């Protein structure tokens, strides 16, 4: 496995997503953007922006896992156009990383520097999108990091018992075509690898569930959002490693935990 750290900071994503949908960036976000994403939008649509975004956040899928088992991601790659490698936030813990992803700021700025789940008091993408007139839905497992740290925003929350119900609700919302941005969070792999290890049989099945769910969501976009230019993202938060005592974990300043790869695709509107 690579001992080299990625160099593109995750702080660049929030402002890029805001620009992609023609919204204000969070006020604390990194002003440097991710040109590959914006270039993809222009290439696929002929425009600088999209009408819709589907942001799928599967927990704990490190670059090393994807590179080693890339065949497992064929359905993800079928719906996406580019891969972007990021260096996630340190420490690579779920609330730290998602706070960085959706504020565009480092932990020293957004304030979450360890495994804790306070409501963020800085500006986030879930503040700037509604300010810009975007209708946003968050579909996540109840009481987990994303809905807790991004609580009390002017968005609609759909908090479900576990991943399966999250995906089913997201499919309903895509079919209704009422939201400009839908964020979907799944966590099974992170849960399973902590109980076993990152390459256990149950862990592989959890990754399969992630990728099957993403495929279903993207097919729903194809069916129900065909009148819109849509950016889709398969965007994880951190990686994992196997500790000396055998179980899976994350939180160390090592490439296995810090290096992540996102997948982005643009589905242009179709005129039937």
From TrEMBL:
Entry-linked InterPro entries: Alkaline_phosphatase_core_sf
Taxonomic superkingdom: Bacteria
Name under which the protein is recorded: Uncharacterized protein
Naturally occurring in which organism (per UniProt): Candidatus Stercoripulliclostridium merdipullorum
């Amino acid at each position: 496995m690579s001992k080299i750290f990625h160099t593109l900071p995750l702080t660049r994503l929030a402002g890029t997503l805001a620009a992609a949908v023609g919204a204000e960036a969070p006020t604390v976000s990194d002003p440097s953007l991710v040109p590959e994403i914006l270039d993809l939008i222009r290439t696929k649509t002929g425009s600088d922006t999209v009408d819709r975004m589907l942001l799928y956040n599967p927990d704990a899928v490190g670059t090393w896992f994807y590179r080693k088992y890339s065949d497992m991601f064929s359905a993800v790659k079928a719906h996406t156009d580019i891969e972007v490698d990021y260096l996630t936030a340190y420490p690579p813990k779920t609330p730290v990383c998602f706070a960085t992803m959706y504020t565009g700021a480092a932990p020293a700025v957004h304030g979450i520097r360890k495994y804790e789940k306070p409501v963020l008091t800085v500006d986030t993408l879930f503040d700037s999108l509604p300010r810009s007139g975007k209708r946003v839905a968050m579909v996540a497992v109840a009481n987990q990091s994303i809905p807790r740290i991004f609580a009390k925003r002017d968005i609609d929350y759909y908090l479900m018992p576990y991943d399966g119900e999250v995906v089913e609700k997201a499919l309903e919302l895509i079919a209704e075509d009422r939201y400009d941005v839908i964020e979907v969070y799944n966590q099974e792999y992170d849960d399973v690898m902590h109980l076993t290890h990152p390459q256990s049989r149950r862990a592989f099945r959890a990754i399969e569930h992630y990728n099957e769910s993403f495929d279903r969501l993207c097919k729903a976009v194809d069916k129900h959002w065909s009148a819109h230019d849509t950016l889709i993202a398969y965007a994880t938060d951190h990686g994992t490693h196997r500790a000396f005592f055998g179980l899976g974990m994350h939180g160390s300043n090592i490439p296995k935990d810090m290096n992540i790869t996102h997948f982005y695709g643009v589905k242009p509107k179709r005129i039937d």
